[in-house]
Amino acid sequence: MEAAIVHRSEAMSKVVALMERVATTDATLLITGENGTGKSLLAETIHRLGERRAKPFVTVACANIPAELFESELFGHEPGAHTDAVLMRPGRFEIAQGGTIFLDGVGALTPPLQAKLLRVVQERAFERLGGTRTIRVDIRIIASADDALEAETREGRFREDLFYRLNVVQINLPPLRERLEDIPPLASHFLRIFAGRHGGPARRLT
User: Fold this and answer.
1) Residues 167-186: tens digit of each pLDDT
2) With helix as H, strand as E and coil as C, how does the chain read?
């Protein structure tokens, strides 16, 4: 199985090996690392390598969803659930049915929102906002957070039960400054992309 992660370093080789082992399972994953280390790319690659590749890959940018819209965005709503709810709208979990939902930046959620997320992670079940029918989904859950999430859990700012539900398997992405040998292959990779995008000749870095 070939991973679409450009690398040369031993550190990233270990990441890729773990990624390939878990890709064909349904284990819930927590991807940790600093901003810019490629957590979204890793999550999408895991989905493409897994058995759910033909089904949706749905990303939820947790930090960008206003608290008052959280339930509607994730779980959907029935007509009349709130002022703007004219039609039934499925939420992100429902849209991801059969595939993978990626909770990007889950550490940004406030404690009340963490509590609302916990049940879905545990039971894969929820009700649309304003509805009474329980909807069950068959999905894989991948979450991402920065390296501080475990400390925030110990200090009580992130729910411990939710942390352990998400942290079934953890993959930590090291920053580029700790794997400098990956810079040449990454630079060549982007050079090929840009050359192809602009119709220029193939070039190489000296």
Assistant:
1) 999 999 999 999 999 999 99
2) CCCCCCCCCHHHHHHHHHHHHHHCCCCCEEEEECCCCCHHHHHHHHHHHCCCCCCCEEEEEHHHCCHHHHHHHHHEECCCCCCCCCCCEECHHHHCCCCEEEEECHHHCCHHHHHHHHHHHHHCEEECECCCCEEECCCEEEEEECCCHHHHHHCCCCCHHHHHHHCCEEEEECCHHHCHHHHHHHHHHHHHHHHHHCCCCCCCCC
